[in-house]
Amino acid sequence: MTTLLLCNPAYADDHLVNFSYWNWGEAFQMKKDDLVQDSNSNFSALGLEYEYSSGLKSRGWNAAAALLLGQATGGDANGNIIYIASYQRFFGAAAKVNWFWRVERRVYLEAGPLLLFRSFQWPSSADGISADSGSTVNFGASLNLRIRMNRRLDFCQSLGTLLSKGGTMWSAGLGYRF
User: Fold this and answer.
1) What is the extent of the structural domain holding 130?
2) Number of domains in the chain
């Protein structure tokens, strides 16, 4: 079967570099002494991705790795604990494997698992409030809509969920095929 696929002119390998914007939320928890308060946090990042794609023109798979650089905001000004941390810089990485199906001449649907890593720790406040959100490594799943604008340019939008104390993840990017 492998020989048949390699000899098939409709079977192709592609490489893509993608510049993207990522955004996701995580459950956020603040602690001071015996008090605990829940809230939300938001992570926004710019990503640089490399993607390898293989398969037939109508279906196949792709694998991507991304480096992320961004800022996080979390906290709450209401309740018993007042803590807000904004513009906290972080570095991260992501890996995805997707299966794709061509639904129209230039439109593809993709689905698959997602692995997200972020190197980040919330700062403690001067009055002893500590904060935590999500996890350093998080797994999830995403559904992507890819539009092939022309032979070289792709627009890809992803919507997914993170499993460990995570929420909804969204990204959009413009990619160049070579």
Assistant:
1) 12-177
2) 1
